[in-house]
Every structure is written in C-alpha cells, then in structure tokens.
C-alpha cells in the first residue's frame, strides 16, 4: 500500500465513545429505552439532560446514575409545550428524540385528539428540539441527532395510524436534518427497533389482546414476532448501544441512515 492510501491515525477501537466533553438531551428518559440511553451516555461521560413528564421516574433515574462518569440532570417537561421543548434543547451537543406513546385502535374508532397528541409529541416536538439544538451544534461544528424511530418508521401495521404516521414523519425529518447538518459536522440518524421489552410494549400487549380478541401470550408470539426472524424482544440496552455508536467517532460518516434492529422484520 502506498503512503497516500495508508489509513490515517483515526479513532482506535474501544469499549465505546468518550463523550466526556459533550452535553446530551434525551426525551422520554424516565421510560424503558430513554432510561437505557441516558445511562449509556452517562457511562460514556456525557452530561445528560433527562426530559420526561414523569418527574418521579426522573428522580429514580438520577439515583440510578449516581457514580457514573457523566452527570444526569432531571428536566421534568411535557413535550406538548413546544416552546419549552425548543428552549430545553439550547446548548446541547447530542439530541436523542425518544419520547413516545401508542394507541392501538382502528382508524374509524381512533380519537382525533389522541392522533394530534401522538403527532405533537413524536414529530412536532422532535422538530422543535432539533431547531433549538442546531445553533449551538453548528457553532461548535459538531452534533449528533439520534431519532428513536421504529420498524414502524419503515413498515405499517393495522390499528397504529398515529404511531406509523409519526414515525414515517420522523424518518423524513431525520433525513432533512442530515442533509442540512452535514456541512456543520452534524449527523442525524434513526434507530429502528422491533419490539423492545419496555412498559410501552407491555401496555400494547394488553391493548392488542383486546383488539384481536386473543391472549397476551399469543399477541407476543403470533402478532408481535410474526414478521421477526429472531423470535425474541429487543432489550433497551441493545438500543442504547446503537445510540452510543451513532454518537461516537466511528459513525461520523453515517448520516441520513435508518439503523434497523428488528430481528430481520424489514428483510422480508
Ligand atoms: P415507554 O412508554 O417506556 O417510555 C416513553 C417515555 O416517554 C415515558 O417515560 C413517558 O413518560 C415519556 N413521554 C410520553 N409522552 C411525553 C410527553 N408529552 N412529554 C414528555 N415525556 C413524555 O416507551 P419505550 O418503549 O421506552 O419507547 C421509547 C421510544 O422508542 C418511543 O419513541 C417508541 O416509539 C420507540 N420504540 C419503542 C419500541 C418498543 O417496542 N418498546 C419499538 C420501537 C420503537
């Protein structure tokens, strides 16, 4: 290999990125995936602003993070307050758009006000958070936006009109942020899990059992995992590891991407 084609000193393999000089914001931090992401980023040294409307869950998270290299600060906030959401994102280097909610109901029975709320929390708030975060990221010439999308950002399922619409919208927002941010050192990506073992899924199992008129066990085996080649739920820590990768130096060329971790669902 000639000197001109020899790879440069680049990042060294490690147990994960060093984020000790970074400030992150994670939404939905009191819940399953958001909590795991917060703890993972704090383990990598980041100072994490943990946003959720569940103040008690945030207190528990701050306790769980005691002793980690990075500090976790509780930031109780209802993301439907879009102005407050945008303000909360000022000065951050890493944004993890994760907060979400779900209602499983046929379109003709789907309450319009719930459709609005889902779109507000899962699409409008991410837009406002990105908007609030970009000036600082652009000024520093570095930023990471990670959107926790879903297999439902890439595929539809019946009875999930609001959720599927919001996630498809989030995929679009993520790609636009990737194109606009590239010149400023900002990447934007989606992570697309299949079913993750979290409170949101536990609630869905009960909802789907009612919608399909079958037992909770059959919801998991016959409905949730029907299209997954790997027959298990994903763990929140696996999603958090993908987020940490996307925030690290090895992922600086990965942008506008959707990282599927769906056990082969979208390989169909
Ligand atoms: P979860 O219900 O365990 O946690 C979601 C968190 O969001 C909760 O702590 C909740 O309080 C918070 N939240 C909801 N509305 C809010 C609001 N208005 N303001 C502030 N916080 C609010 O859910 P989870 O399973 O950890 O899901 C997290 C994300 O991952 C969601 O975007 C979800 O769509 C996505 N996802 C989940 C799965 C899964 O199977 N669990 C799969 C793919 C994608």
Automatic annotation (TrEMBL):
<dbReference type="InterPro" id="IPR020904">
    <property type="entry name" value="Sc_DH/Rdtase_CS"/>
</dbReference>
<keyword id="KW-0560">Oxidoreductase</keyword>
<dbReference type="GO" id="GO:0032787">
    <property type="term" value="P:monocarboxylic acid metabolic process"/>
</dbReference>
<dbReference type="InterPro" id="IPR050259">
    <property type="entry name" value="SDR"/>
</dbReference>
<dbReference type="InterPro" id="IPR011294">
    <property type="entry name" value="3-OHbutyrate_DH"/>
</dbReference>
<dbReference type="InterPro" id="IPR002347">
    <property type="entry name" value="SDR_fam"/>
</dbReference>
<dbReference type="GO" id="GO:0003858">
    <property type="term" value="F:3-hydroxybutyrate dehydrogenase activity"/>
</dbReference>
<dbReference type="InterPro" id="IPR036291">
    <property type="entry name" value="NAD(P)-bd_dom_sf"/>
</dbReference>
<protein>
    <submittedName>
        <fullName>3-hydroxybutyrate dehydrogenase</fullName>
    </submittedName>
</protein>
<dbReference type="Pfam" id="PF13561">
    <property type="entry name" value="adh_short_C2"/>
</dbReference>
<comment type="similarity">
    <text>Belongs to the short-chain dehydrogenases/reductases (SDR) family.</text>
</comment>
